[in-house]
Design goal:
The structure holds 2 protein chains of 2 kinds. Chain A is α+β, with helices and mostly antiparallel strands. Chain A is 62% helix and 10% strand. By secondary structure, chain B is α+β, with helices and mostly antiparallel strands. In chain B, 49% of the residues lie in helices and 14% in strands. Classes of the chains: A alpha+beta, B alpha+beta. At the A-B interface, helix 2, strand 3 and helix 3 of A face strand 2, helix 3, helix 4, helix 8 and helix 9 of B. Bound molecules: zinc ion.
Chain lengths: 388, 359
């Protein structure tokens, strides 16, 4: 046999008593990505948006083919036509459903309980389909990803998992979102445990415990802190400018007012303090969000296995903040024109924060005939316009 | 160690290979196995050309999985030189891209045109299958909505005069007939200054006070009423409701969001197509003649409307772009002899004129 032992980039050599640690590598170039992006924007414009399915495919092809593991590149085998047809199918279903609801609305009495049920369940249907879409999209992407001539796959039913997802979402709501970290990990486990590379099944049994600390601090801590900040702002304003504010918001006739000259200044201070308080709350939310997702990524990476391989992540809250906030700012400040920069940063972020532990061999992984969906992510397109 | 790789598509093994082109065959060999695989060059295709590494990723047409990644080498140069379809893969792919794009664009245009015609003519067809009871329910919704926002004028004499006119004009299937459980047409005068008249689903007709004020003879009113009965007789309200339903669905797709609450609004501003207006004009004339009434009032009314609203003889918008046939055209093709009886007696006409003046 002529299997290849992984060519290790310098610095990632084997340390004693530690498993072999390899990284994904991304060597895409921003200039090339921009060129694809610009062509996509122009063609989408000319074709009234229809080209975007092919454009998205082109971007994915570029990203996949510039990502490698153990010296072997990934390949994206999906086509724009598949995404387009998936979208058309969803749109037809949407038109039919929407006409049906309109007909009901016209022909049922305004107070009819059936109409109420239909309208009330509409939200649930959308929630349900959002989950179905996530599962179906993961299956599509896995089956369209090729590495060393072997493609990924996914078993299980998106429709069934959608019900579970919806039920868990409702449960989380009832539990005042306390069940959410638990529910989320269960749902992620389901999706991963149904995922394959060739005949190698991914396997995970994660725990939501590590998430709870940051979740509770994040959610309830920031709630309490928000209250404290609001109270602090109130106290600060009342002790320093109490009389002015009292007069400002009272019914005192104009001729009896004494502090008229100070209104502008006090108002500016009030405004500034409130803005500062808002910023403080936003910063706290971002920090707890980052801590939560760090805990989540670490838990998934440490519990996941694929064949003999295991995973790890050096991710930090700082890296998450840098990625999300950075991308948000780039896209907002450039009015969307910075999109390729955001994609490029995301790829580097993913590659930097995913480590594969163990000997990457692959000779024991064989091709598996898992169901291959014919159409692409129509539902996801309709319910979750993600960036990639 | 060779840099080039071969993946057989069966296991996730990366074979380090050297290749040798031999006629129409590419021999793929490893150190251990000099005959690892044979690929027919005619069966090969280029998947991708990596600018960073300079490697070309090859696949096979007959099997989607196996891959061969070749870096620049004399063997690859020979392969490309001897296999033009591989060398020209980029221009071929581009050509294919354009033709696929063109095919989709054409398909899209055909589908869109198909939808347009299916909708335009399909709604007329579908309208025939909508039961009258559905139409009445829809009409009740709209009528209730209008009733809330508009003042309806009622005087015993005025309403009787209008009622009598409608009864004379209505064809048998729109007559009130208790034995056949037909409710017939209801007609109201609404207090709106703008001269207009509507035919609503559920066999309702509304005439505005502005129209009655503008009319200089009862025959003009009878022309307009005949036109509206023509709409009802041809089931235009249902037809337009069907197509508006489709439009609202389409609009809600484009703008996003559901249009459930808006449907009533959409239907109240219901407008008929040029084709429907023309049909209603013709049907209206037939009804006038069948009732033995003077049919010249319709054309006269269009002339009065034209004088009032189309001060410039030619509108800036060409006629074929307007939703209604131009008033001049309509006045021309509805021109009729002044034979037959007048629609109302002087007393009836006067009471109709006063219908909104009595508070
Ligand atoms: Zn009309």
């Amino acid at each position: 046999m002529d299997q290849i032992d992984t060519p290790q980039p310098a610095g990632f050599g084997r340390r004693p008593a530690e498993p072999l640690r390899s990284h994904f590598e991304y060597d895409g170039r921003l200039g090339e990505l921009y060129w694809i992006f610009i062509k996509n924007v122009l063609l989408s414009f000319i074709t009234l948006g229809i080209f975007r399915f092919w454009g998205k495919t082109r971007i994915r092809r570029y990203l996949w083919s510039h990502t490698s593991l153990a010296g072997d590149r990934f390949e994206y085998t999906g086509t724009g036509g598949e995404l387009f047809v998936g979208f058309i199918i969803v749109m037809i279903a949407y038109v039919v459903g929407s006409i049906g609801i309109n007909i009901l609305a016209v022909f049922l009495e305004p107070g009819s309980p059936l109409l109420f049920i239909v309208q009330a369940s509409l939200g649930f249907v959308i929630l349900y389909l959002t989950f179905v879409a996530q599962y179906a999209a993961q299956r599509y992407r896995l089956t369209r990803t090729l590495w060393r001539g072997i493609s990924g796959g996914m078993t299980g039913s998106a429709w069934k998992w959608g019900f579970k997802g919806m039920w868990f979402a409702i449960l989380s709501l009832i539990s005042l979102t306390l069940a959410w970290p638990w529910a989320q990990m269960r749902l992620i486990d389901d999706r991963l445990n149904n995922s394959y590379f060739g005949d190698a099944k991914a396997s995970i049994s994660s725990s939501s415990k590590p998430l709870y600390l940051s979740y509770i601090i994040g959610n309830f801590g920031s709630l309490i802190l928000t209250g404290l900040i609001a109270y602090g702002v109130y106290q600060f304003m009342m002790t320093n400018y109490g009389p002015v504010l009292e007069e400002l918001f009272s019914q005192t006739p104009a001729e009896d007012r004494q502090y008229g000259a100070e209104y502008g200044r006090v108002f500016a201070i009030l405004y500034g303090t409130v803005v500062a308080a808002y910023l403080a709350i936003i910063v706290i939310s971002i920090l707890s969000f980052a801590a939560f997702y760090t805990a989540m990524a670490r838990e998934i990476a440490s519990k996941l296995s694929l064949g003999t391989l295991r995973f790890a992540t050096p991710i930090t809250p700082g890296a998450i903040i840098g990625r999300y906030l950075g991308n948000l700012l780039i896209i907002v400040l450039t009015l969307g024109l910075g999109f390729p920069i955001a994609v490029h940063r995301t790829m580097r972020f993913l590659v930097r924060n995913t480590e594969v532990l163990g000997e990457i061999d692959g000779s024991e992984i064989t091709r598996a005939e898992l169901p291959r969906p014919k159409f692409g992510e129509g539902l996801l397109e309709a319910f979750d316009p993600g960036i990639m | 160690m060779p840099k080039d790789r071969y993946y057989d598509g069966l296991t996730a093994t990366a074979h380090r290979v050297t290749v040798t082109p031999l006629g129409g065959t590419l021999i793929i060999a490893t150190d251990e196995n000099p005959q690892l695989a044979h690929w027919q060059t005619a069966d090969m295709r280029v998947i991708d050309d990596n600018k960073v590494t300079g490697a070309i990723n090859f696949g096979r047409v007959s099997d989607p999985a196996p891959r061969l990644v070749l870096h620049d080498s004399p063997a690859r140069t020979t392969l490309l030189a001897n296999t033009p379809h591989l060398k020209e893969w980029k221009s071929r792919a581009a050509k294919r891209g354009w033709s696929v794009g063109l095919a989709w664009t054409l398909a899209g245009l055909v589908i869109a045109t198909g939808f347009y015609f299916a909708w335009r003519d399909g709604s007329a067809y579908l309208a025939r299958f909508v039961p009258k009871t559905w139409e009445q329910k829809l009409g009740a919704h709209i009528y209730a909505a209008l009733n809330k926002n508009l003042t309806i004028c009622r005087t015993p004499a005025g309403n009787t005069a209008l009622r009598k006119l409608v009864d004379r004009l209505a064809p048998p299937e729109l007559q009130r007939d208790a034995t056949k459980q037909q409710d017939g047409i209801t007609v109201d005068v609404v207090d709106i200054k703008l001269p207009n008249a509507f035919a609503l689903p559920g066999d309702h007709i509304m005439v505005t006070s502005g129209l009655i004020d503008l009319a200089t003879s009862p025959d003009m009113v009878s022309g307009v009423v005949a036109h509206e009965i023509g709409h009802l007789d041809l089931r235009h309200p249902t037809q337009s409701a069907i197509s508006n339903l489709g439009i609202s669905a389409t609009v809600s797709i484009i703008l996003g969001g559901s249009s459930v609450g808006d449907i009533a609004t959409l239907l109240t501003v219901m407008s008929y197509s040029r084709k429907m207006e023309h049909e209603a004009d013709i049907r209206g004339l037939e009804l006038l003649k069948a009732a033995g009434l003077r049919a010249d009032g319709m054309a006269e009314f269009f002339k009065v409307m034209k004088d009032k609203f189309d001060k410039d003889a030619d509108s800036i918008i060409p006629d074929w772009l307007q939703s209604h046939p131009g008033l001049k055209d309509r006045a021309d093709y509805t021109k009729a002899e002044a034979t037959g009886t007048t629609a109302m007696t002087d007393a009836e006409w006067q009471s109709l004129k006063d219908v909104c003046k009595v508070k």
